User: Fold Glycosyl hydrolase from Nonomuraea spiralis.
Amino acid sequence: MPFPLRFGANYVPAEGWFYSWLDFSADAARRDLADLAGIGLDHIRIFPVWPWIQPNRALIRQRGVDDVLALIDIAAEFGLDVCVDLLQGHLSSFDFLPSWVLTWHRRSLFTDRDVRDGLAAYVDRLAREVATRDNVFAVTLGNEVDNLFPANGTTPDASSAWAAELVEVARAAAPRLLVLHSLYDAAWYDPGHPFHPADTVGLGDLTTVHSWVFNGVSALDGPLGPATVSHADYLVELAAATSADPARPVWLQEVGAPAPDVPAADAPAFVRGMLDLVTANPALYGVTWWCSHDLDRSLADFPEREYDLGLFTVDHRIKPATRELAAVIAEHRRTGGARQGDGPGRRPALVCEADLAAEPGRRGEVAPGSPFHAEWVRLRRSGPVAIVTKARSADTAHLEARGIDTVLTQA
Assistant:
């Protein structure tokens, strides 16, 4: 059944970055969210900083929780729905971890039983609290929690058990909300990574992917080359192909135009090209841009590309790329968001020899620049192209459910 696409932004406060949680300002938040509502977005994803809410394993600060609820209520004033990321965790190259897992207390988030019990208490409390707000539609366990490895040792089995446990805690606490497990793309491309594709497509209520072209894609053919512009669609297709459920939606939960991979002069064309491709994908649930506002250059020690990723500058000026995003959103709203697969339109699929869910050690075979990726990019230049695993390539019900009419093999 077709569903309307969602368009949103990962909310990064213009004033003070995420440090603003330390002295939350409702007025500053209102100004930021007015920017986002003004370009037609329907949701934001927010990032409470975990150690500032749970500074001790046995202490969850109500004041911190109340600030999260206040931001959610402000979002409602602007007609914005909210996804709450629970465990921060990792943000823009910094890890935020409480003292009770560091120094003399050093222990892994993923394997230590006491830490996992503390996390379960935190997830339960925050999920229950935010579920009291009608405009909250989802919670994510954390922002790219696999970035917390290797500082927190884990194994594939421990990673999977950790996520499965917390997904169930969140579901029990907030049964009406979508519960999600979010990972960066090493889970898809790195053969040795201890977080596996099977968990991204098997845990939680839908699959999330984060598409960043600084992972080597842009080096293949430049900022506006077909590999770069189609990378988001490629990740959505990998996720759809890996899922046992052909109807499982995929949320492009982070995508951006990072410099220098995508220079400012090319950013509007990148936005248009990337969205034209990925929004045709019938598996796509929504697109959430990283990020809402730039990072103030008075703040030190961030990677250079982090400072200019916003839709708006720190003084609330709109960017050319943002105008392009707003135009795409308006077009989708006018047309009702019709996509490939909603009606009679069909598409071919390229067979992937590797089943990433069952064979994570073969992830390198689909990484950017691999022969499989190159062939998919070549085919994608002529129109939408699905990906299907070899095991499902003769499953007519699966093919029909995903709108696939022709199966192609790699040249």
